[in-house]
Design goal:
heterodimer, A: alpha/beta, Rossmann fold, Alpha-Beta Plaits, 2 domains, six-stranded mixed beta sheet, four-stranded antiparallel beta sheet, 16 strands, about 35% helix, globular, B: alpha/beta, abc type-2 transporter like fold, four-stranded mixed beta sheet, about 70% helix, elongated
Chain lengths: ~300, ~375
């Protein structure tokens, strides 16, 4: 049985009357990539910052690597690594100097040159941080999050703002960390990223986890069967299939298939009303569909739009 | 703890030496200031200014005082007869600087009971007025020291002060040192604090074993080095170019160290209230610019209107400037210690406030 490295029981965080995190339970297992998804204000950043020992919980019990968060935060800090959101290291220090700077904050530290190899930046080690591209900067950030040879690594939106190529390069680095046995807690706005990288994920909304499991489990549990897309169906198709919960997206109509007769009903209705369309496609729901269904937030190009 | 502080120190040092802008403001800027102001007001010590002087006392003491003014070699003294009507004399000859020694000067000087009021009438629009005032003020300062300090004190320090070629640049250099301490500590601290916060560096450091106190100590140590570089630059330029005689004793060093801590703490407080990097720079300017002009860095406080002089008394830079002048130029150790005491009190209050409000943990 996999050992839990983080156990949360009844975690609550309040800001005055606002309940940011509402009585949450969670277990994160050793060696897994665990993603937390959610719209802004859902409570994911607050949850992660409590685990990173930056914020204090209002109530609840948290155990990280066998230490109670309330009493053992010093020891926890020594054993976790964090890449903050929109992190930029010192502009005028080189890659190597930056990694060495942050390594200097710890008694126990990883070898700087090994970290540079880990993120594949050997040829950039003496380049100033400000002269690196966005993707390379994030790789430096990941190396910095590893300077104390941590058992748990928190990566807060590590690919935000990167082009698809650079994003995939960062994914490879994250896969490399996982292969080395690190537990990775990832927060991201990219559904594809969460689906591709995560062993398990949680969707958070209004301070609560509303879905939890592996990507396929979450899709299975909350996706509600296959999705039928009528390409080019337009407004006419949408009106004709309104009773079945049809939704219009651009000029396409989407309907969730609940049982095997639904597809027959759709085709019959289109024929009966003499509605023209280009094509009918059946597909499994994606994480994006699940997220949309559970939170009601819009996603464009795979990225959450608040 | 020491290792973490050393890491912060070396990291900030590397950043500094790779930033041409930082090096310019720390090293080149004070040199440019000294050269420009020195050229305008000092001209290498060879300029002299006309001072018309009416001695209404005609005593040995007043003649001695006039001789001391002559000894500065900055003033060309033109004696005006005691029975001359001053107002018409000034008007008819377009006099720019007129000093009147009042009757009873010697008597009051010896009795130590009544204050002596020397009347200096100047054309405020004249470019020479500041230098003349500064020179006379330096000589008067020497007399005041004699009166306050007793016989032995006079013998040790007074003669040297008065025999120096005191000029505007002598007044100016300690002011520039005070100014640079303030500018470097406030501006750099505000810059570091806001930039590192916005870049997520503080958020990252908050997840490490580094404490807030370690960060502040590391940063203050680096500020001291930057200030040291700037002070050395100012002194070397003053000595080499303008032949200024100034001493860096324990008191002046203490004032430099304490005021660096004081202004660093002011920078931390500013950066706590203004989060945006650009706005923070402006806010730092809003604090430092009035102090630059109202705390006596460029001009003697005595030359300012009364209400501005009162305002200057609440500015910490005023006491830094006064303390440095007393210690480095006038040799007035008592005055320097008085100012240092005030700086220590202000520094304690400000530093405690800064530490209390600057925790980088979210709560």
């Amino acid at each position: 049985m996999e050992r839990n490295v983080i156990t949360i029981r009844g975690l609550t965080k309040k800001y005055g009357n606002l309940v940011a995190v509402n009585n949450v339970d969670l277990e994160i297992r050793a060696g897994e990539v665990f993603s937390i998804l959610g719209p802004n204000g859902a409570g994911k950043t607050t949850t992660v910052e409590i685990l990173e020992c930056i914020r204090k919980a209002t109530s609840g019990e948290i155990e990280i690597l066998g230490h109670d968060l309330m009493t053992g935060s010093k020891e926890i800090r020594r054993q976790i690594g964090v890449l903050p959101q929109e992190f930029n290291a010192f502009d005028l220090l080189t890659v190597r100097e930056n990694i060495k700077f942050f390594a200097g904050m710890y008694d126990r530290r990883a070898d700087v040159d090994e970290l540079i190899s880990l993120v594949d930046l050997e040829d950039k080690r003496d380049v100033c941080f400000k002269n690196l591209s966005g993707g390379l900067k994030q790789r430096v950030g990941i190396a910095i999050s590893m300077v104390n040879d941590p058992r748990i690594v928190f990566l807060d939106e590590p690919t935000t703002g990167l082009d698809p190529g650079a994003r995939r390069e960062v994914w490879e680095v994250i896969r490399g960390l996982r292969a080395k046995g690190r537990t990775i807690i990832l927060t991201t706005h990219y559904m594809e990223e969460a689906e591709v990288l995560s062993d398990r994920l949680a969707i958070m909304n209004n301070g609560k986890f509303i879905a939890l499991g592996s990507p396929s489990e979450v899709i299975e549990d909350h996706g509600g069967g296959q999705i039928c897309t009528i390409l080019g169906g337009g407004l006419a198709a949408m009106h004709s299939l309104k009773d079945m919960g049809a939704e219009l997206k651009d000029n396409d109509v989407m309907i969730q298939i609940r049982d095997k007769d639904d597809l027959v009903r759709i085709v019959t209705s289109l024929d009966h009303n003499d509605i023209s369309y280009d094509e009918i496609i059946l597909r499994r729901p994606s994480l994006e569909d699940v997220f949309l269904k559970l939170t009601g937030h819009t996603i464009e190009g795979g990225e959450l739009i608040d | 703890m020491t290792k973490r502080i050393t890491t912060i120190f070396t990291g900030l040092a590397r950043q500094f030496f790779r930033s041409p802008g930082s090096v310019f403001w720390t090293v080149a800027f004070p040199v440019i200031l000294i050269l420009i102001f020195g050229a305008i007001f000092d001209s290498g010590g060879f300029s002299s200014y006309d001072l018309y002087l009416q001695d209404l006392d005609g005593s040995d003491s007043s003649r001695d005082f006039i001789q001391k003014l002559r000894d500065t070699e900055v003033l060309n003294i033109h004696t005006v007869p005691a029975d001359e009507d001053i107002d018409s004399f000034i008007t008819s000859r377009s006099i720019e600087n007129m000093l009147i020694i009042p009757a009873g000067f010697e008597k009051d000087l010896q009795s130590h009971t009544a204050g002596i009021n020397l009347s200096l009438r100047q054309d405020g629009t004249s470019g020479t007025s500041m230098a003349v005032f500064t020179t006379i003020n330096a000589v008067v300062q020497g007399y005041n020291l004699k009166l306050a300090g007793g016989e032995n004190y006079i013998l040790v320090t007074q003669h040297d002060i008065i025999s120096e070629d005191l000029s505007y640049i002598d007044f100016f250099l300690p002011g520039i040192i005070g100014l640079m301490i303030m500018m470097i500590a406030v501006q750099s601290t505000v810059g570091y604090q806001t930039r590192f916060r916005n870049h997520g560096i503080f958020r990252k450091l908050a997840t490490t074993p580094l404490t807030n106190a370690e960060w502040l100590i590391g940063m203050m140590l680096w500020m001291l080095v930057m200030v040291g570089i700037s002070v050395a630059t100012v002194m070397i330029t003053g000595i080499l170019v303008f032949n200024v005689t100034m001493s860096l004793d324990v008191t002046s060093l203490m004032i430099i160290i304490i005021s660096t801590g004081l202004f660093t703490a002011i920078g931390i407080i500013i950066s706590q209230f203004v989060k945006d990097e650009e706005v923070a720079g402006t806010a730092a300017g809003a604090v430092t610019f009035p102090m630059m002009f109202l705390a006596g860095s460029f001009f003697p406080l005595e030359s300012m209107p009364g209400y501005l002089q009162s305002f200057a008394k609440v500015l910490p830079l005023t006491y830094v400037n006064n303390g440095l002048r007393d210690a480095m130029i006038y040799g007035n150790t008592v005055g320097a210690l008085d100012n240092m005491l005030i700086i220590i009190v202000i520094a304690l209050v400000v530093i405690i406030t800064a530490v209390a409000i600057s925790g980088w943990k979210k709560e």
